[in-house]
Known about the structure:
This is DUF3592 domain-containing protein. The protein is of the alpha+beta class. Helices cover 49% and strands 15% of the residues. Strand 2 and strand 3 form a beta hairpin. The radius of gyration is 31 Å and the shape is rod-shaped.
Amino acid sequence: MSVVPPTRRRGRSRRRTLALLVASGLALVGVVVLGVGWAGIGITTLRASAAGSEPCLAAYEVGSGVEIRYELLPARAVCVRDVDGTRQEVVVASVPTAVTVGGLVLALGGIAGTVAALLPARGARDAAPLDAAPPGAGGPVAPAPPAGTP
């Protein structure tokens, strides 16, 4: 029985490590930008509601068929109510579309870059593993035939 030495895993190259760091950093920045924007919309809507400066929000608190809608793109809070049979929409809070799109691009691009950096290199996928035995060296070994046997 032979002892097989432990195999060593090849480390990632510095270039792939740097790409992973940059891509995950971009994804994190994008998620933070989106989170701050959407939280800001919610906080601004709550402050406007507490101040009572917006008639639509004041009607919402009374409960007279008013709806507050939060939209993803463009990121904004819209208060919708019917006034004398006509539908009135008031934008209570919003984040510029460029900021929201920029955050989405950073988040999605960073996620895609992170996945790409984590995948093995194309040449490494096609090559044999480092610990592969040469042909004919693997498998069980048959006992040697007794001496003098043809």
